[in-house]
Structures are given as C-alpha cells and as structure tokens.
Specification:
The longest helix has 23 residues, at about 240-260. The protein has a single domain (about 5-260), classed as Ribokinase (UDP-N-acetylmuramoyl-L-alanine:D-glutamate ligase), CATH 3.40.1190.20. The chain is built from eight helices and eleven strands. The chain is of the alpha/beta class and about 270 residues long. Bound molecules: adenosine-5'-diphosphate (ADP) and pyridoxine-5'-phosphate (PXP).
Length: about 270
Amino acid sequence: MATPRVLSIQSHVVRGYVGNKSATFPLQLLGFEVDAINSVQLSNHTGYKHIDGQILDEKDLDKLITSMRGNNLLHYTHLLTGYIGSPAFLSKIAEVVKELKANNPNLLYVCDPVMGDDGKMYVPQSLLPIYQETILPLADVITPNQFEMELLLGQKVESIEDAWRAIEAFHGKGCGTVLVSSSTLGAKDELIALSSKKIDGKSVRVMASIPMLDAHFTGSGDLFSALTLAWLHKTGGNTQLSLDNVIYSLQAVLKRTLNKALGKEDFKYYEASL
Ligand SMILES: Nc1ncnc2c1ncn2[C@@H]1O[C@H](COP(=O)(O)OP(=O)(O)O)[C@@H](O)[C@H]1O
Ligand code: PXP
C-alpha cells in the first residue's frame, strides 16, 4: 500500500507541544508522510501569561495552495485540521477540502474543531458559526471535547444521553464518524470518551472510561485527533479498536509527561510476576 500522506493544518508554537508540534512526529512514527501548514506561529500556547506571533489569513493560505497546485502537489489521503486563529482562514479551508476531495474522492477529512476547554474559548468566537455551517458538513470525522460539542450544538451536554443526542445531530449534518475526546459525564475520577460511526444507517457506538490523572494537559486533544486519524487508517475505520489504541498510547505519554514534571524517574525495568 502506498504511504499515506496527511496535510495537517494546525498551530505552530516555538516552545512546547500543541498543534503541528504535537501531531507531526507521532504521525511520522506511525508511518505517515506529514505536510504541515502552520495556521499560526505563536511563542507558546494560549494558556501562558504572554503570547505573541503571527496569524495566517486566507491570502496566506491561498498563496501556499496556489503554489502547491501549480506543482501538482495537492494529492493527499488525509486532511487534518486543528487550531485555526482566523475566521477567513477557516472559511478558506472549506475550499481546500473540496479541492483535495476532487483530487482524491477517498480522502478522509479529520476535523478537530479546536475552540476551547472547560467552558473557556481560546479562539475568536466568530469561528463557531463557520464550523457549524461550513466545516461540519464537509468533515468525515470530528473530534470535539465536551465543551466544543456543546458550542457546536448550541446546548449544554449534561448526561451521556445528551451526548449521544448531540452526536446524532452531528451525524445529521453529514459527519459520519464522531469521537468525543473527553467528557466529565461519568464518575468524579474518570473521563468518558465516546465514539459513533454511521454504518448502513445505524449508529455503532463505543464508550470508554479513562482514569483521570490529577493534572491539566495542553496538547492532549491535538495528540488525540492525530492518533485517531492514524488508527482509523490502520484499522480500516474500526472506531472501537481505534479508540482503544488512541487512549492506550495517550495514557502512556501523559503518565511519562507527569512523571517528568514531578521529577520522578522516567522509566524503570520491573520484573513482571503474578
Ligand atoms: N487529566 C487527564 N487524565 C487522563 N487522561 C487525560 C487527561 N487529560 C487528557 N487526557 C487524555 O487526553 C485525551 C484528550 O484530552 P482532552 O482533554 O479531551 O483534549 P482537549 O480538551 O485538549 O481537546 C483524552 O481522551 C484522554 O485520553
Ligand atoms: C496554539 C494552540 N494550539 C492548539 C491548542 C489546543 O490544545 P489542546 O490539544 O489542549 O486542545 C492550544 C490550546 O492551548 C493552543 O494554545
């Protein structure tokens, strides 16, 4: 099989790991060619006290795409989008999706509608209607967190039943596969991830419980969407197997991150015995 090639349109940060900085290397390790367009170049993620840099607009994106078109380079198996900082840039992405799909009707578009977390938006509010009206109907797979699911739906999601209803509404907009990266709809010490895929008119649903680590991670959502893209490809679109693999590898990464931050030894050899 030819090497899958992803066009990844997300943020770049000088310091740290979010956006393309967190998606590119894992995707490469999993066997993907990754071509990155940096929607913004920022000093660091938006949680810091100071933040500055450049935000690409639709003309910047058009220049890159026009030149690539001229060289016949717009041939991809996957498109992945994440943090976008400008509404005009996001609208332009709709045109890019259509062109890439015209070049490859089998292209899979994985959209992480990165807008915020824990009740706070960290992108301009004007992105929301563009995601709702223009981008969702074009996406094959979406990976919102609980807050982003509520924003897209325009309604609070307070129970698992609410979440399935929200997911059905996204299916109704044309999005065949939905993975909710995390929600706090379960017990106090767990995160719940949900996925649903429309197969022959039926929704095939999977729910996973993740033991909650006592820390806040930035970039975990970006890793989630990149790994989801990779595992959906490797499993032929099996959402159960993909979610298992994504969560398993993410937990390993987050535990190592936490151990490093706490100054604990990163790695130890243990004898496995019953
Ligand atoms: N505190 C945590 N404890 C355990 N796993 C976490 C934690 N935060 C994030 N994760 C893992 O990262 C994934 C994506 O996290 P999420 O918080 O939904 O991303 P974001 O809100 O940044 O989009 C979750 O599915 C989970 O596997
Ligand atoms: C520049 C940038 N990109 C991407 C993200 C998305 O991060 P996450 O994976 O935690 O949703 C953030 C969140 O702070 C960000 O500031």
